[in-house]
Amino acid sequence: MSNQVKQKNNFSMGKLTSLLVLLHNTELVKEVEQELDSRGYNYTVGKVGAMELSKVVAAVETSAKNNHIINANSYREVHALYHAILEAIQGVSRGTLQLGDILRTVGLTFSIVRGNIDSSGYGGEWISVCVYGTIGAPKKGFEHDALGFGFNHI
Amino acid sequence: MSNQVKQKNNFSMGKLTSLLVLLHNTELVKEVEQELDSRGYNYTVGKVGAMELSKVVAAVETSAKNNHIINANSYREVHALYHAILEAIQGVSRGTLQLGDILRTVGLTFSIVRGNIDSSGYGGEWISVCVYGTIGAPKKGFEHDALGFGFNHI
Amino acid sequence: MSNQVKQKNNFSMGKLTSLLVLLHNTELVKEVEQELDSRGYNYTVGKVGAMELSKVVAAVETSAKNNHIINANSYREVHALYHAILEAIQGVSRGTLQLGDILRTVGLTFSIVRGNIDSSGYGGEWISVCVYGTIGAPKKGFEHDALGFGFNHI
Amino acid sequence: MSNQVKQKNNFSMGKLTSLLVLLHNTELVKEVEQELDSRGYNYTVGKVGAMELSKVVAAVETSAKNNHIINANSYREVHALYHAILEAIQGVSRGTLQLGDILRTVGLTFSIVRGNIDSSGYGGEWISVCVYGTIGAPKKGFEHDALGFGFNHI
Amino acid sequence: MSNQVKQKNNFSMGKLTSLLVLLHNTELVKEVEQELDSRGYNYTVGKVGAMELSKVVAAVETSAKNNHIINANSYREVHALYHAILEAIQGVSRGTLQLGDILRTVGLTFSIVRGNIDSSGYGGEWISVCVYGTIGAPKKGFEHDALGFGFNHI
Amino acid sequence: MSNQVKQKNNFSMGKLTSLLVLLHNTELVKEVEQELDSRGYNYTVGKVGAMELSKVVAAVETSAKNNHIINANSYREVHALYHAILEAIQGVSRGTLQLGDILRTVGLTFSIVRGNIDSSGYGGEWISVCVYGTIGAPKKGFEHDALGFGFNHI
Ligand SMILES: [Mg+2]
Ligand SMILES: [Mg+2]
Ligand SMILES: [Mg+2]
Ligand SMILES: [Mg+2]
Ligand SMILES: [Mg+2]
Ligand SMILES: [Mg+2]
C-alpha cells in the first residue's frame, strides 16, 4: 500500500481529479482523497442528471460555490471555472455542446479540484473538472459511458 | 479487497477502460486487468507523442490491430474503432481537432477495450477508447492534463 | 432501361439512399425501390418540418422503428441509427447543429436504408440516412435546399 | 417519360445539382442535363481524390473557373463559390473540416450549377455545389459514401 | 483633423463597420459616420440583450429591415445578411453558437453597413456586421467583452 | 477633446484593445495609447501574414513574450495568453480554425493588452487580444476584412 501512496505522489492534479470521480463510491477513492488532502487541495464531488446542458453547467458551478472551491463573489474565479466546465462538457458531448436539442440526456457525476501546482513554471493555483457518467436516449439503459475533463489556471 | 472486486463487477466497460489508462504503471491497474480478464474482454495500452493528429489516430489504430483488438481486414471493425478514436480525441482537444496547426503537442497514453455487454438491449460487442496525457506548448512542462473517451458498437 | 438497371447494380447503398429521397414522388423512384428490393434491403421514407432539431431526430428515429428498419428494443441498433442521423443533420445544418436557436426552420424528406454490403471487408449490415429539403427563415419561400447524409455499421 | 420531364420542371436547382452528380455516368443524367439546359443554367461536373482538403477546395474552384461557371476575375463570384464549397465539404466531413489530419482520404465527384431562380423573392443568380463519393481510411475498400451540398447567392 | 479624414478614406468597409459600433455614443463616431455618408453607404446601429441566440439574430435582422439596409422582401438580401450575422456571432460566442444553453447571456451593440466597394474584382454591393458588447454569467458584472464580425456579398 | 478623453475613461479594456488595432497607424491611436498608459496597462501591436494558423499563433505569442506582456517562463501566463489567442482566431476564421487547409490566407494586425481591472468582482490582471486584417484566397485583392477578439484572466 505504501507503494501505491508513493505512486500517487506522482499523480498529477488532473489524474487525481479523474480518479476522484471514477472511483466515487468505492473503497479506493479514500486513497485519492488522502492524497488530495495531503496536498492541501480543495475538492468536491456532485451529481446531475439533465436533458438541458444549462442544468449541467449550473450544477457544477453551484457545487463549486457551495463547497467553497471557488469564491462566488470573484468573477475571476467564476470565469476560470466556467471555461474548465465547458472543456469538460466537450468531452462528454463530443463535437456539439448539445443534449436535449439532439434528443439525448445525461446522468453525470462530477469532481472539482483546486490547488497549487509546484512544478517549475506552473506557479499559483489551478482548477480541474472531471465529468463521468452516461449519455444517451431518454430511455433507461439506452445510453453509454461518457467522460470529459477541463483544466484552467485560477 | 474482496469488497473492491465486488465493486469492480459493477464497473461499466467505459469505467474500466478509463481506469486502465489512468492507473497504468501502478499496482492498482492489476485489479482492473483481472476484472477485464474475468469478463473475457480484449484490451491493450499504448503510448504516443505527436504534434500531428494523424499520428495519434494511426498509433491507436495500429495498436488495436497489432494486439488483435480488432480485425485489420474488417472495414466494419476499423470503422467502429475509427469513430471511437475521433470521439476520444475530441475530449483531448476540446473544440477543435487540431494539434500542431494551433501550435500544441500531446504526450498520450491510450487504452482500447473490446467485449460483450450483457445489459438488456445492449447485445453484442462494443469498443471503448480512453486517452489520457498532456497537451500544451512544444516546451517541456508547458502543458496540462487532457483526457478523452470514445465508445461505439462493433 | 435494362441498361439503367445494370447501372443501378453498381450503385452503392449510399447512392440508392440518396436517390430514394431525391426522387421521392417521381416515377423514377420506382427503379430505385426495385433495386433496393432486389438486394433485400429494408427502407422507408418520411417527412418532418420543424424549428426544433430534436423533432427532426425524433421523426427519423420513430420512422425507423415503426417501419421496422431497426429494432426499437436493441440499444445497439438505436445507437447505430442515432449517429447516422447526427451525421446527416450535419450536412443540412452545415457547421452548427442548430435550427430555431439561430432562427431557421427546416422542411425535410428523409430516407433510411438498411442491409448487407457484400464488398470484401465490409461484412454484415450497414445503415444509411439521407435528408433532403429546405432550410431557411420561418417565412414561406425564404429558404433554400439542404442535403445531408449519414452512414454507419449496425 | 414526358411525365418525368414535367416532374423535373418542379425540381429545385439544388435537387438538379444533386442528381447531376449522383447520376453521373448513367443514362439518366441526360434528362437532368436537358432540364438544366432548358433553364439556361451553367453547370459542370468534375472529380478529385485527395487526402488534403485544400486540394478538394482547389479542384472545385478551378473547375468552376475553367468551365466558366464563375468569372475568375470577380472576387464577388469567387467569394460566393468559396462559401458554397465550404458548406458542401461540411456534409462530407461531418463535424470537422479535416481529411489527412485525422487519417482519412476522399474520392469525390462534384457538380456546380449556376443560374437564375425565378421564385418570388429569390431574384438574381444562385450557385449550388454537390459533392458525392467516398471517405475513409487510405486503404482500398475501407471507405464509405459521403455527400455534401452547399448553396449561395452569387 | 484633415489628416484623420484622409486616413479614413483608406479605411475598409469592415474597419468602418467595426469603429461604428466601438465608438458608438462617443464624439469620435461622427467622423466615421461622415465617411460612411460620403461613400453613400447605408448603415444603422442597434442594441440587444438576450440569453437566447435567436433573439440576437432576430434583433439584427429586424434592425436591418426596419432601417432599410436590406429589402425585407428579397430573400437574396435576407440570405446575405443572415450568413453575415452568423459569422459575427461566431466571434462573440467563440466555438459554439450558444448562450443560455451554456448558461451565459449577452448585452450587445451591433452595426450593419451596406454599400459598394470599388476595388478591382470586388464589384457590386457588400454587407458587413459588427457586434460588440459583453458576454458572461447572468449576474451583473460577471461578464467580459466580446466582439464579432461578419462580411458577405449582397 | 477633453470630452473624448473622459469617454475613454469609460472604455473597457476590451474596447481599448480593439481600437488599438483598428486605429493602428492613424493619429487617433495616440489617445488610445495614452489611456492605456494612464491605466498602467502593458500592450503591444504586431503583424503577421500566413497561410498556416500555427504561424499566427506563434507570432502573437512571440510578440507578447518579446514585448514583456507576459513572462515567457511562466506556464500560467502562457496558458492564459494561448486561450485568448484561440478565442481571437475563432472570430477571424468563423467556424473552423483553418487557413491553408481550406485554401485561404490571412494578413493580420494584432494587439495584446494586459492589466488590472478594478470593477468589483474582477480583481487581478486580465489579458485581451484583438486581431484585425484580411482573410481570403491566396490572390491579391481576393480577400475581405476579418476581426477576432479573445479575453482571459491571467
Ligand atoms: Mg488549456
Ligand atoms: Mg454514441
Ligand atoms: Mg464513418
Ligand atoms: Mg444559406
Ligand atoms: Mg467570406
Ligand atoms: Mg471567457
Automatic annotation (TrEMBL), chains A, B, C, D, E, F:
InterPro entries: Regulatory_HutP, Regulatory_HutP_sf. GO terms for biological process: L-histidine metabolic process. The keyword Transcription regulation applies. Keywords: Activator, Histidine metabolism, RNA-binding, Transcription, Transcription regulation. It comes from the Bacteria. GO terms for molecular function: RNA binding. Homohexamer. Belongs to the HutP family. Antiterminator that binds to cis-acting regulatory sequences on the mRNA in the presence of histidine, thereby suppressing transcription termination and activating the hut operon for histidine utilization. This is Hut operon positive regulatory protein.
